[in-house]
Amino acid sequence: MALLCVASLLLVLSFVDAFQYSDLALYIDSHQEEYVEALRDWVAIESDSSNILKRPDLHRMMDVTAEKLREMGGNVVMVDIGEQELPGGQPLALPKVVTAHFGNDSQKHTVCIYGHVDVQPAKLEDGWRTEPYNLTEIDGNLYGRGASDNKAPVLAWIHAVEAYQALNMELPVNVKFVIEGMEETGSNGLDAMILAQRDTFFSDVDFIVISDCGWLSKRPALTYGTRGNCYFFAEVEGPRQDLHSGVYGGTVIEPMIDLIGILDTLISPSGKILIPGIREAVAPLTDEEWKMYQDIQFDFDHYKSKIGVSHLMYNNKVDLLAHRWRHPTVSIHGIEGAFSDPGTKTVIPAKVTAKFSIRQVPDMDPAVVKKQVTDYLHSVFAKRKSPNKLKVTMVIGAKPWLADTKHELYQAGKAAVKRVFNVDPDLIREGGTIPVARTFQDVTGKSIIMLPIGGFDDGLHSQNEKMSRYNYIEGTKLFIAYLHEVAQIKKSV
């Protein structure tokens, strides 16, 4: 009899829980036009953090974000993170970081949501089919700069909290927000702010959630790792000034030829990094990882078609994903000082600077990589016996981030995805770098999960960026479900 009573009670509790989710999901569905209009309003603000002329728009974007959270009854603080110095030495105020707090029940977990509301540059003449700052819906896709990266995910989290409030349902966890406006240009000032508030704002945070990434396919995903990035300048300087190639060609040792010569020694045509010590530091691929990659949904042909190539570096899924996510790579991005305008110019540049990067993975250390690259390029350059001067500088040294997929945060993520989408999520890594994840990990010591809602074809940083209406609305439901699932994690004493 007792067992029957317990079973009946569990059934009732399960029914109540399912009923509450159904009510919340129905609320989201009935307000989706309102959510699209909110995204339209946010996309219309040209919050390009790379353009100092757009700084007033960026400040307005932060004000709009803060006001939205205040209207919901959040305890909102706009944190002054100081100024940045422009190339000419002039100071320019950084956009304030918006923090907000909903709930302060010590018996509940506290979840901190990170997002950003600045965007990459965008112009119609870059190849956009629609005005980039006028959200346009075509075939269920919402096109606009920042739609996916990262305004819709930030709004989805806000709408998730708002739905609980609208239905007079108690939030299952305390929720904090940290929303910045400089992510696209390196998150100036954010690391210092996180460190300064480690023992105040972050002191009661249990878990941190980042939704600044996307799925790999049509299947929802949980992201558990990102690569870091070491970005280098290699400068070769020769004559006092640029020279005429007809007058001086053949008589001087040209800096550009030296530079191209040493760049050619960084990586082989097959993708093998030639710098001693780099490959040896990489954590080996485990059998468990291999199995995880094997189970991931990935369309080779679509991937090739999307980027417009006929062949890839690797011809099987596991190798390709492994080299996209958990192996380092060298990419050469450009040469400053070289002639790159249309037309012809017979010039020998006096000084040229190559820009290249090496993506970091466990167990690489940026400080070690800096020494390895610098020593290697100087040794290669010395063999050329050139009178020119070489200077190697590392300007970015971001570490990789990796989480434990067995952590309860990821179990909660799997349960939330299953509830909303009725499928198991892919467990994926990102080839790019999201430095704030490692900062949060190192400074606060809190557990972190990346919970994306962006589509695999959203075109982040590219022309025609979009967020599908489906991902936006169902993603909001995912966040609602996730807050519930996190609340089920046993709170440590």
Structural account:
The structure is a single chain. With 493 residues, the chain is an alpha+beta fold. Helices cover 38% and strands 21% of the residues. The strands form 6 sheets. It has a 6-stranded mixed beta sheet with strand order 1-4-8-5-9-19, sandwiched between helices. Helix 4 (147-166) crosses helix 14. The protein is globular and about 80 Å long.
How would you describe this structure in keywords?
alpha+beta, 21% strand, 493 residues, six-stranded mixed beta sheet, disordered N terminus
Question: How would you summarize the topology of this molecule?
Answer:
Elements lengths: L1 H29 L1 H12 L11 H17 L3 E5 L3 E3 L5 E3 L3 E6 L7 E7 L19 E3 L2 E3 L3 H20 L7 E7 L9 H7 L10 E4 L10 E6 L1 E10 L5 E2 H4 L6 H9 L23 H9 L4 H8 L9 H9 L4 E7 L10 E2 L2 E10 L5 H18 L5 E10 L2 E2 L5 H14 L4 E5 L4 H10 L2 E4 L15 E3 H19 L6
Parallel strand pairs: 5-8, 5-9, 9-19, 10-18
Antiparallel strand pairs: 1-4, 2-3, 4-8, 6-7, 7-20, 10-17, 11-15, 11-16, 12-14, 13-15
Q: How is the largest sheet built, in terms of strand order? A: 1-4-8-5-9-19
- How many extended strands? 20
Distinct helical segment count? 14
Inertia-based shape = globular
Helix content: 25-40%
Give the biggest sheet: 6 strands, mixed
Low-confidence segments: 1-19
Radius of gyration: 25 Å
Assembly level:
single chain
Structural class: alpha+beta
Query: Strand share of the residues?
Result: 15-25%
Compute the separation of the termini in Å. 34 Å
Mean pLDDT: 94
Task: Give a short synopsis of this structure.
With 493 residues, the protein is α+β, with helices and mostly antiparallel strands.
